[in-house]
């Protein structure tokens, strides 16, 4: 894996893959977090509109450019990035590169297309609102990050979206959709020479390059009124708890009445950012607690032993300077309190004492196996490369990650668990 920076400020990260398929994309530091209060939902809306016409291509030409050769073009918006990505055969690499650069840097956002697309986005919002198991994650983050853009729904508000004009989208994208605020990532059987050739063809202003750059100091900062970074503590990291507690009681609890068939419940707290020294230990602890396997402690306690839930999961969402750790499950209304007690008991188990050497080794073996399997998803690997370079200005190979996990001690995992999993510090959201 290699990285470099071009004369325009565009960062490039690339790595070889064992197939003839190439995965490439542009990760842009334009996101929900960069929106001003008057731009709510703009990041996601701009992503949709980028496919509706550029200075060189119509909407139909954008849609068919890669599909005509069996390729694919897609995009998604997060709270800390917008990512445009393409999959193609090696022989169509130039075509894909040219299209990506055009869509990201030359989109025009015509008003007639905006007027049509806004109804598509509103349908997306309404569909999301009809899915309580998905909506509850956004409402939970809104609790944890009250008054901060991280607590804002990515999709935005329907009434506000209908007011946006071409000028509004251009103001947002001209501020953020620039090469110096983006990362190009390429994963495939393509040489550095070919990558540089096609970048300069697609982006003629990009002349010259330099070698890999050092990561910026933590926390990174950016100019612009729309950017909001949480204030770090004196130790250089945002304190995850008890600052993340809201609402009633010692840990914060909120009930929203939605007349759902099941009770939908989330329990969690703010967590460590991606640069925090305890982040990886918490990653391992969370996998033990409620990772993707049926053998997770929460699944065994709630489903296998007692049959109280169909599914339970514990997730760790990582941002650059903070994070969200959350447990989600759905259950019968009359079982809700019982399930919460069992969850708290499992949390306390992880807080009471370090893992034994046997338990730690088993946990490491499991998560390393999961990581190894995840690297067979080449598209995900490519996007991960781009996002890591965008946010942390560095790369990380599979072997480097595995070696870091192997080096974790029981005390480190215990220390992270005690700080984040403390049952007394939980924020709880319930749909009833």
CATH topology of the largest domain: Cytochrome Bc1 Complex, Chain A, domain 1
Largest β-sheet summary? 7 strands, mixed
Give the amount of beta strand, in percent. 15-25%
Helix content: 40-55%
Gyration radius over CA? 23 Å
What count of structural domains?
2
What CATH architecture of the largest domain do you see?
Answer: 2-Layer Sandwich
* Helix-strand topology string: EEEHHEEHHHHHEHEEEHHEEHHHHHE
Q: What is the end-to-end distance?
A: 49 Å
Question: How is the secondary structure organized here?
Answer:
Layout: E1 2-6, E2 11-15, E3 21-28, H1 42-49, H2 59-67, E4 72-77, E5 82-89, H3 93-105, H4 111-129, H5 132-144, H6 158-161, H7 166-176, E6 182-187, H8 192-202, E7 209-210, E8 253-256, E9 263-271, H9 279-290, H10 297-304, E10 312-318, E11 323-331, H11 336-352, H12 357-374, H13 378-392, H14 398-406, H15 410-420, E12 427-431
Parallel strand pairs: 2-6, 8-12
Antiparallel strand pairs: 1-2, 1-7, 3-5, 3-6, 4-5, 9-11, 9-12, 10-11
Helix pairs in contact: 3-8, 9-15, 10-11, 11-15, 12-14
Short structural summary:
The protein has 432 residues and is of the alpha+beta class. Helices cover 41% and strands 17% of the residues.
Can you give keywords for this protein?
Cytochrome Bc1 Complex, Chain A, domain 1; alpha+beta; 432 residues; five-stranded mixed beta sheet
Could you explain how this protein is built, in words?
With 432 residues, the chain is α+β, with helices and mostly antiparallel strands. It folds into two domains: 2-208, Cytochrome Bc1 Complex, Chain A, domain 1 (2-Layer Sandwich), CATH 3.30.830; 253-431, Metalloenzyme, LuxS/M16 peptidase-like (Cytochrome Bc1 Complex, Chain A, domain 1). Helix content is 41%, strand content 17%. It contains 15 helices and twelve strands. The strands form two sheets. A seven-stranded mixed β-sheet has the order 4-5-3-6-2-1-7, with helices on both faces. A hairpin with a 4-residue loop joins strand 4 (72-77) and strand 5 (82-89). The radius of gyration is 23 Å and the shape is globular.
